[in-house]
């Protein structure tokens, strides 16, 4: 399989603007840019991100009138991406995470390209010093490292579309 087209989905309640900016900057620094980024305001208005942060690819914002919770916000992002119909894998990121390494999206793409049966890739959550998180609820500013397999409690996941 050739390298899949990757999208990034971020859901926020608008209460972590600095963390969202840092996360999106870490997405912009990836050596394999996402084809699309969807940012969902879960019951909140969103600022303009694309030009201000020089985000690569197509950037779409979705403002939900009410907070549908994390699953509802992620479903809204996935629904919008299905409407576009031009991505193969969605990487879901929490609004307080960071992609520490510049090769995370490329590595996710390589994992999917290498195994057509792959459905989910989990991420290792670490603190600001790179130590693995001890709980299932990552702290604000969590760092995301790509790892094969699944990781219960991860704040990010890659999901194959279609």
Automatic annotation (TrEMBL):
Which InterPro entries does the protein's record reference? Answer: Glyco_trans_2-like (IPR001173), Nucleotide-diphossugar_trans (IPR029044)
Q: What is this protein called?
A: Glycosyltransferase 2-like domain-containing protein
UniProt keyword list = Glycosyltransferase, Transferase
Q: Does the keyword Zinc apply?
A: no
The organism named in the record is Streptomyces haneummycinicus
Q: The Glycosyltransferase 2-like domain covers which part of the protein?
A: 10-125
Q: Which family does it belong to?
A: Belongs to the glycosyltransferase 2 family.
State one molecular function term (GO). glycosyltransferase activity
Upper lineage is: Bacteria, Bacillati, Actinomycetota, Actinomycetes, Kitasatosporales
